[in-house]
Amino acid sequence: MPRTGEPGEHPAQGTRRQVIEQAGKGAHCPIDPQRIDIAALRTLTYGLYVVTSHNSGRLNGCVVNTVVQVAGEPCQVSVSVNKASLTHEFIARSGSFGVAVLDQETPMPFIGIFGFRSGRDFDKFGKAGYRLGLTGCPLPVENTLAQLEARVRTSVDCGSHTTFIGDVVASRVVKPGRPLTYDYYHQVRGGKTGRGAPTYGLDMSVCDKDERKKKMKKYVCQVCGYTYDPAAGDPDSGVQPGTPFEQLSDDWVCPVCGAGKDQFEPE
Ligand SMILES: Cc1cc2nc3c(=O)[nH]c(=O)nc-3n(C[C@H](O)[C@H](O)[C@H](O)COP(=O)(O)O)c2cc1C
After folding, report:
1. Residue-wise pLDDT tens for the chain (267 aa)?
2. What is the DSSP string of 80-133?
3. Which site among 51, 162, 170, 260 is 20 to 30 Å from 194 CA-CA?
4. What is the spatial distance between Cα 4 and Cα 207, in angstroms, rounded to a whole number?
5. Which numbered atom of ligand 1 lies nearest the CA of 124?
């Protein structure tokens, strides 16, 4: 397998402004950061997965949003893994990785363990249920719709991340259900992206304050004067704090007078 660079050379982190400033760093062609609109990148769609591997009897894995099937014949998948992560080290050493496709209702603490903690100081599979696959990679069974295993065919040094491309050697459906998408995780579950993700810094949660304010406008009911404040939501109607007005369902009504969404105007 080609060499993929040293861990931690390119920490993938920063605010939106830093992301824009860094956009051209290390690129293989001249880049004018003024031409990069982060909002455009935010429209890309992803799923959420746990990618796993092993090394000398140790098991590990982390949440990723970057698993993609890249070829059909032979069937191959790719995953982009941060060079600073333990999962990167394990995949580079073992030459194999496992993938668990996460269920839409995966509990947030599960994502917390696999997406925000490192196996360097915590045994993630100490309590999580798994089975060992053909490649020796652990394949989580909880919150998992399907499991895949791949042997690394090649890898590409992408700066902060290595993209591992592997031949799928085994796959199976664990249970029917809806897969967790990146969008659902953010918009409905209120999740955040971990520092190691290639998309870290593009979330609304770390955007410039002005932009966030713009996105979180208050709306006033023209019938009774009630103000919908996205920061507070409408917990009595099951609307979580942090829900923008635009994302309220069409049948949401004013909690005071029952007027429909169309009776509201920006404050
Ligand atoms: C929603 C979400 C998406 C993520 N996507 C990726 C990803 O695509 N690639 C990656 O390397 N890390 C990603 N991460 C970050 C890793 O899960 C995180 O850095 C993890 O702590 C690494 O653990 P490890 O050191 O045990 O491998 C993501 C985290 C979250 C919460």
Report:
1. 433 333 333 444 455 566 656 666 778 888 888 888 888 999 999 999 999 999 999 999 999 999 999 999 999 999 999 999 999 999 999 999 999 999 999 999 899 999 999 999 999 999 899 999 999 999 999 999 999 999 999 999 999 999 999 999 999 999 999 999 999 999 898 888 988 999 988 775 444 445 555 567 899 989 888 899 998 889 888 888 888 998 899 999 998 888 899 999 999
2. EEETTSHHHHHHHHHSEEEEEEEBTT--HHHHHHHHHS-TTSS-TTTTS-EEE-
3. 170
4. 31
5. 26
195 Cα: distance to centroid of ligand 1 (angstroms): 7
Residues with C-beta less than 6 Å from any ligand 1 atom: 48, 60, 62-66, 80-82, 85-87, 111, 115-120, 193-198
Which amino acid belongs to residue 67? Answer: V
pTM confidence score: 0.75
Query: Which residue's CA is minimally distant from atom 1 of ligand 1?
Result: 193
State the residue for tokens 């979180």: 216
Residue 70 and residue 163: Cα distance in Å, rounded? 11
